[in-house]
Design a protein that fits this description.
The chain has eight helices and eleven strands. The strands form three sheets. Strands 3-8-2-9-10 form a five-stranded parallel beta sheet, with helices on both faces. Strands 5-4-7-6 form a four-stranded mixed beta sheet. The chain is globular, with a radius of gyration of 19 Å. The chain is α/β, with parallel strands linked by helices. The chain has a single domain, classed as P-loop containing nucleotide triphosphate hydrolases (Rossmann fold, 3-Layer(aba) Sandwich), CATH 3.40.50.300.
């Protein structure tokens, strides 16, 4: 920014029950918003068709994940449907210090860990489906998981949704375009938060001295 004012980056956390659309929203935010990058998690989940190691996830086995966890390398980690997911701390800390924003696609457990460890750097948004039937339809259309996994995800959705009131913002994903616009508005406002602007105090002091 001009006038000696810089900005510390923020971590934008998107959470939702599986199938509610947060991955689509995250992809659109990355495409349309400059200065934000995706946090690439480590996971023990099997690689799906079309996914690329290092771009979508860092795919590791359980032993490697456990070693990283025990060495304190993760900013947050969680177990989701018997698979481990975690975000390493160092690249996130570096991005925030350089004024770049980091986008997280995590569940409520990950969001809780991030709030505990990153504090005011974290902005959380919960994505809700418009209805239960819509959620089930999306899961079936996605067709990447067998029917028994879809049933498990529907059962898990209730547990995930009960944490909605722990988030800073809630977006009901009736329409993708409207939801993208809402998340972009949240991001724009949070980027202007006074506490994120470094050098602002000095700027105001100099401004007052000139009056």
């Amino acid at each position: 920014m001009e006038t000696g004012i810089a900005r510390r980056g923020l971590t934008l956390v998107l959470s939702s029950p599986s199938g509610a659309g947060k991955t689509t929203l995250a992809r659109r935010i990355l495409e349309e918003e400059p200065g934000i990058e995706m946090s690439v998690s480590h996971t023990t989940r099997k690689q799906r068709k079309g996914e690329k190691d290092g771009r979508d996830y860092h795919f590791v086995d359980r032993d490697a994940f456990t070693r990283m966890r025990d060495h304190g390398e993760f900013l947050e980690w969680a177990v989701v449907f018997d698979n481990y997911y975690g975000t390493t701390r160092q690249p996130v800390d570096r991005a925030l210090a350089e004024g770049r924003d980091v986008l997280f696609d995590v569940d409520w457990q990950g969001a809780t860990s991030l709030r505990a460890k990153a504090g005011d750097d974290v902005v959380t948004v919960f994505i809700l489906p418009p209805s239960a039937s819509d959620l089930e339809q999306r899961l079936n259309v996605r067709a990447q998981d067998p029917p028994e996994i879809v049933r498990r995800r529907m059962l898990g959705a209730s547990n995930e949704i009960q944490h909605w009131d722990e988030y800073d913002y809630v977006v009901i994903n009736h329409d993708v375009e409207c939801s993208v616009a809402a998340v972009r508005a949240i991001l724009a406002a949070e980027r202007l938060r006074r506490s994120r602007l470094t050098g602002l105090k000095e700027f105001v002091q100099n401004l007052q001295a000139e009056l």
